[in-house]
Structure to design on (580 residues):
């Protein structure tokens, strides 16, 4: 930590459940870990069903509720109870800076924008469409958002969404990966000579599992022993139904994997495939595969194209095109030299996303919005519900 | 008849209440935005001061040739003396310093300073200061934009919710310095 830095205590808000692996959650966990390594005092507020398993630096944000949001099922925390928790956390945390992730997500994040005032910064992760942002409740969201002093976007797409919908500007700070965590993993033993990996929710269409299944027959024709490892939350039986009969033995469903297992599986497999069809603003998992030394084959979404530098540090196929995916995948599997070259360039490229680089920029933002001696405090102004929730807490304390 | 009158009265009272609540919320928003601008202005001025300080140090440390040192220290001094000037004047002076830094630290000069003793530390400090100036100015202009947007609303103009607070101004200056190899 910079000795003359005025920022010491940092509060971070994660809108999505801490128990479910995901892009935003990993981002928050890695940011917090890196900040702690630098000597900052960090508290993360996140929804959770299992408060007893939380690490020390995570505060219990209450049990999340599963609701459809942003095209998939998200586990969010809201309501009067959640508001009270957020207020209590702000009051007791005595933070120099509060860093809110995905502030428009109708969860702890939006509540924190609403209940806090002072040096607050926010990071936008997703690129979402206009209609939803402008839907009901937007006025309130906008009002809460005005308090954010520094805006960060993790990708050019997220920045564009933010600028088009809310106006103003944001600083681009790309997602980070803790590269050292992924290097030199012992590999898991999974039966089969070669394997390729898919990561992500199997029941979410935008993760593109169907594109991979569509390409599978043409890949198996060339490599009959190949294993498709499918790792991600979802129901095993309904998954089996989607696989053609003759390919059942080639698919192995691993279910939801822990971060550690994910690293091992990544290090084990020959190729990591990201067939996402949309909605990805960065694709942290691409950078993770690159850090693990696994060749990447991804759909040519703009975000993926940028991370893979137009195909030089990973291969791209036409989004949604099963034939193109099969063609490129066979190419990669048949050509170890090509894989080696891709991995070499990828391990260079991934250093741009290492958290030790990224966190400098984040800290610069903290310092830019923080005046010496300033704290994040509760905001009661102009908010009837907020006043009410604040009073209930006070009465409970008596 | 009386019930009708009472209903009308009640509706009017309710509308009035809503109106007052809305106005109080808008005034609260406005107040917050003005405060945000104040803080952002202070932050930007602090970062600009830091930047010109390091520029002076760089000019005085003897790592650059004398002619470059003179150019750099001239503009850095001008920037540090600018606190009495108008905002537009100050922005011009700071832009001049940016230009001087760009001129003084071309790729060759940068490599030269980097190889000298004490050079890497000074350059790291300078690049951190430059980055923070860019950030602060962006955040300030963001706050100014949000504030002017609200102040243009009819409800704010008609009821003079902003009081006598001066109209916020964007800070326009060039603050981008290309450091290092291009």
């Amino acid at each position: 930590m910079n000795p003359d830095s005025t920022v010491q205590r940092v509060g971070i808000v994660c809108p999505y459940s801490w128990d479910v692996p995901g892009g935003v959650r990993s981002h928050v966990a890695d940011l917090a870990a890196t900040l702690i390594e630098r000597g900052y005092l960090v508290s993360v507020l996140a929804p959770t069903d299992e408060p007893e398993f939380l690490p020390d630096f995570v505060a219990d944000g209450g049990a999340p509720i599963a609701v459809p949001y942003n095209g998939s099922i998200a586990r969010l925390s809201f309501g009067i109870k959640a508001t009270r928790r957020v207020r209590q956390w702000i009051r007791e945390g005595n933070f120099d800076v509060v860093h809110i992730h995905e502030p428009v997500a109708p969860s702890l994040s939006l509540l924190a924008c609403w209940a806090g005032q002072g040096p607050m910064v926010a990071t936008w992760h997703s690129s979402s469409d206009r209609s939803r942002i402008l839907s009901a409740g937007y006025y309130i969201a906008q009002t809460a958002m005005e308090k954010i002093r520094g805006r960060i976007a993790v990708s050019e797409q997220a920045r564009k969404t933010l600028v088009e919908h809310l106006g103003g500007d944001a600083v681009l700070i790309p997602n980070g990966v803790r590269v050292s965590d992924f290097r030199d993993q012992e590999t898991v033993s999974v039966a089969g000579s070669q394997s390729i990996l898919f990561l992500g929710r199997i029941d979410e269409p935008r993760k593109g599992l169907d594109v991979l299944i569509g390409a599978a027959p043409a890949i198996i024709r060339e490599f009959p022993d190949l294993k498709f490892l499918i790792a991600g939350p979802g129901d095993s039986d309904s998954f089996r139904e989607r696989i053609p009969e003759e390919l059942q033995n080639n698919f192995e469903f691993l279910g939801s994997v822990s971060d550690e297992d994910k690293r091992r599986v990544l290090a084990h497999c020959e190729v990591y495939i990201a067939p996402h069809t949309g909605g990805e603003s960065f694709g942290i998992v691409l950078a993770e595969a690159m850090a693990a030394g696994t060749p990447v084959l991804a759909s040519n979404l703009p975000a993926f194209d940028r991370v893979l530098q137009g195909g030089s540090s990973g291969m791209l196929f036409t989004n949604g095109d099963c034939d193109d995916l099969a063609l490129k995948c066979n190419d990669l599997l048949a050509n170890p030299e090509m894989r080696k070259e891709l991995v070499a360039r990828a391990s260079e490229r991934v250093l741009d996303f290492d958290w030790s680089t990224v966190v400098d920029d984040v800290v610069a933002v903290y310092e830019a919005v923080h005046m010496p001696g300033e704290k994040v405090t509760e905001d009661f102004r102009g908010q009837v519900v907020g006043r009410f929730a604040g009073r209930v807490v006070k009465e409970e304390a008596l | 008849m009386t019930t009708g009158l009472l209903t009308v009265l009640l509706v009017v009272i309710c509308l009035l209440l809503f109106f007052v609540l809305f106005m109080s919320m808008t005034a609260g928003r406005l107040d917050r935005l003005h405060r945000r601008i104040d803080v952002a202005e202070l932050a930007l001025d602090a970062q600009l001061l830091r930047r010109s300080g390091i520029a002076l140090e760089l000019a005085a440390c003897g790592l650059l040739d004398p002619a470059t040192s003179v150019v750099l220290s001239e503009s850095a001094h001008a920037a540090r003396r600018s606190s009495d000037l108008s905002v537009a004047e100050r922005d011009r002076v700071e832009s001049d310093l940016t230009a001087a830094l760009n001129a003084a630290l071309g790729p060759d000069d940068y490599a030269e300073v980097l190889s000298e003793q004490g050079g890497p530390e000074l350059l790291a400090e300078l690049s951190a200061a430059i980055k923070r100036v860019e950030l602060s100015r962006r955040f300030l202009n963001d706050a100014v934009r949000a504030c002017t947007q609200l102040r243009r609303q009819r409800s704010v103009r008609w009821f003079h919710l902003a009081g006598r607070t001066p109209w916020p101004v964007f800070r326009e200056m060039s603050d981008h310095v290309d450091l290092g190899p291009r």
